[in-house]
Amino acid sequence: MRVKTLGQFIIEKQADFQYAKGELSRLLRDIGIAAKIVNREVNKAGLVEILGETGETNVQGEKVKKLDVFANEQFIAALKAGGECCAIASEENEEIIPIDSEVSKNAKYVVAIDPLDGSSNIDVNVSVGTIFAIYRRITLKGGGKNEDFFQRGTEQIAAGYIIYGSSAMLVYTTGKGVNGFTLDPSIGEFCLSHPNLTIPKNGKIYSVNEGNYLHFPDGVKKYIKYCQAEDAATSRPYSSRYIGSGVADIHRNLILGGIYIYPTTTKSPKGKLRLLYECNPLAFIIEQAGGKATDGVKRILEKEITELHQRTPLFIGSEEMVDKAMEFLKASVALESK
Ligand code: AHG
Ligand code: MN
Ligand code: MN
Asked: Does domain 205-337 have CATH number 3.40.190.80?
């Protein structure tokens, strides 16, 4: 069988876009290249100690960077050089990074990115990821502005994630389904391995940080108890699986079916995850795969955004499971207001 690389696939799909002159294709290609560089570093993470690079400086006398900072720099450099992006919003930067250069003078897009998701797993050889969202700019020229990012998730032109796991995989959507590509290290290419990914309507996995249980809203507590209850007809109890890298948890649930929850807690009353570069892109992908993503009440993609690092609670995954969790939330809110 002949393999199809990410590059070939993107070019073939270019015809799907009205007016597309290849800019989006180039942007996706640039992200793919940066992802390969990040993957290379992620794969070497465990070697840092024995190579004596653990201190402040490495053997070349360069400062050793944390992987999340390194990943951030790689994606920014690739997007700056590519010329299709007029601003970047990153989890690692307080403010947006406008790009106003000779190569980017016709740039139509802005990119929001979580360069390294699951940073607590970097040093323990557990999967991490990258999440990105692409919007068409609203402003007309020069470097992009905040307002280019203050668009609802429904306006995303494309979104994707890379998972640096037992294999590296890039999964993305442009609103016409979801496709997954696995990196073949022998040829250094992402190859189409998961065409037309769909998430099962129902699943047997729930993913939530149960350590925060006491601080969860009542409806979430009750839904967790529901997941743990014995019921043969609905294959309960479900299995609990929580990696702590949202990308990895949501990727697994996309393939197997399941729900991932990061609710509000008494400590983080707005939730923990960020709307712009975590929840919106993941919601776009999961919806495109036939699943659902809400904040417990409202569809994530329709949420208004007024701050770059705005937080939101997240209920995402198999449609029937998200619906069930929302039923519990609704019932307990109704009870509380009595
Ligand atoms: P990041 O590493 O980009 O800060 O994101 C981590 C996120 C998400 O990926 C993960 O599911 C969640 O935070 C884990 O949070 P807890 O440790 O609070 O469970
Ligand atoms: Mn993250
Ligand atoms: Mn991060």
From this structure: yes
